[in-house]
Amino acid sequence: MTTGSNSGGRPYADGQNSDRPGVLEAEKRFTEDMIKSRTTGEPAETVLKTDDRVLARITDGIYRQPSSALRELISNAYDADATEVFIETDSPRYSQIEVRDNGIGMDEEALSRLIHHIGGSTKRTSLGKDMGTTAADNAGLSPAGRKLIGKIGIGLFSVSQLTSHFQIITKRKGADHRLFADVILRTYLEDEEEAAADRPFETGTVRVVSVPAEDIKAHGTQIILRQIHPRARNILRSRERWESYYEQLELPEKDRDPAVTAPVFHSGNLAQEPDPDDKQLVFQDGPAMPWKDIAKPTPLQKFEALRTALAGQVGSASDRPEVARTFDNYLALLWTLSLSAPVPYLDGHPFDLTSLDDPVAFMITNARGQAQKLDLEGGQKIREAAGLTAHDTAAGGGFKVFVDAIELRRPITFEWWPSERQAVQHPMMFVGKYTPDLSKVPASIRGGELSFEAYLFWNSKIVPKENNGVLVRINGASGALFDDTFMKYQVSEQTRLRQITAEIFVSKGLDAALNIDRESFNFAHPHYALVSKWLHRALRQVANTQKAVSGAIREAEAEVRQEETGARLGQYASDAWRAARRESTERPPPVEMASNAAAAAERRQQGVIAFDRSKLSAVKPVAGKARDVTEREQKLKAIATILDGFGIFDNMAYEDQHRLMNAILAVFFDDGKR
């Protein structure tokens, strides 16, 4: 191996030169330390660094759907202490999308930080306190005291899925001007020229102007997504689905694919691309919105109608209707956003249910076995009885999201779906909480503190199908939606699992286990492992409790049926006895089972037909429940009554009576004793 130098540069192995474009000073020093290590034996140490191009590639393509971009913008508004967010999608054109909030807004310093530090958010940092983006005494909270959703600082650039051109209009309260930022994003290219690839990657360009404002007290941010990508427009319009549907209509009916259908409810299918200069829309299929029959519906009534329309498919279209099959992509977008955003529930938080509601409440324990029933007194809420604190009311005045004048709510409700198949005729609400003691785990691997509350809701069916599974909310928001594998629960409980919807409300930890797209988790993270382990234990308790409650109900029902059967047998035997005796002055004698011969003899002296149970082996099944013994005794009594009616017992010894009854019962119940 040789060494050399070039143009005065530091010598590298094989004549390499350290003075190269794009090589950082720290990189040069580390290279030199490694070379020195050959002779000194001392290890070279440094800190791992991430290249700017990696971040550029990440911001360009980590988000998968149009809903992801809007979800991130909603989260940003929440972190900025907005109480209202208004989104206008320009449906069904989707030529541009506007997102407007009344949050704290940005000043020049905050906007400059956003532009120059993609992936360098001030949230959860001491810098956030100075810039007014976090609480003064807690960098993990917003100024109004909300637990922050965002952390990295790339959420705004999720809009690259929708457009390469957007504008930011923002203002802080008390400012006498607004900032207008015009942003052009650059798409990352793998096959760039070598010279361009050597330069620091530029995500795009920004032009900012300041415009005087008269409304000094106003504050907030408006983001306008211009020139929506054709691919994104086609997704929002459900173009591929409509084209497939019309292709099927051209085929003979016998050749059509039944899986290809038009959405039941939709925003309409355009017959042609709208003219930008003309407001006229030409539909091939006009809009069929869920609220079309409501006169002047309010924003909340529209969303209620959305949920009702989906639930209404039960019985008419499917026992487990699907969002994707019932709605077009636009309405499905509303559903997805309503699940992911930190907005209130449609009919109230599950922890606010009382004994007056449908579900019966149980407390999940951190031990094996069954969950413990919660006895709710009067109008007591589940949260009060179980000591739970998770809620859906945002600090700082609440939080509402409106999309095209539709108010989003979490579309998870807890009413009972009647089913004759189920022994349990009411839903079951299982709640629990967990804060593991991680003090003995080394700080380097425990991932910080972890604390969460959760519910698992069992029903005869979960509507819609997409609500089946577990959804994890971190600080009120979720990007992963429902996981129908329940974090890879490897137990054959498929029927019961399809009847459960669950949510986990994380108040501390797990955030680091979220992958960068916030739509999936790092399964190897210790917090994820702890949450999944708790969930699987909770599922076993749900199964054990539901089985026990169901079994008790079926047992009680069987006992009632058995009593009814015994009464019918007794009545038939009595009628047969009277018909055989033809004596209106007599009545059938009682037939009883005595515990021993002496007790049987005593009862016979009182005119009762009595049998010694110990001599009737056919009454005792080889293996069975007490109910099986009762059934055999009922039949024995009926048979004995009929035989007595025909005089069979009149001159028969008691021992022979026992042998006869054993023989007859053996005909009905073959226990392999013969």
* Strand residue percentage: 5-15%
Distance between the amino and carboxyl termini: 95 Å
Helix content: 25-40%
Shape: elongated
Largest sheet: 8 strands, mixed
Low-confidence stretches: 1-18
Q: Strand sequence of the main sheet, in spatial order? A: 7-6-5-8-4-3-13-14
Structural class: alpha+beta
Count of helices? 18
Q: Give the overall pLDDT as a whole number.
A: 85
Computed Rg:
37 Å
Tell me the number of structural domains.
4
Overall number of strands: 20
Region (Disordered): 1-28
InterPro entries: HATPase_C_sf
Protein name: ATP-binding protein
Organism: Agaricicola taiwanensis
Structure description:
The chain is α+β, with helices and mostly antiparallel strands and 674 residues long. The chain has four domains: 38 residues, no CATH class; 181 residues, 2-Layer Sandwich (Heat Shock Protein 90), CATH 3.30.565.10; 199 residues, no CATH class; 80 residues, no CATH class. 32% of the residues lie in helices and 15% in strands. The chain is elongated and about 115 Å long. The N terminus is likely disordered. Keywords: ATP-binding, Nucleotide-binding.
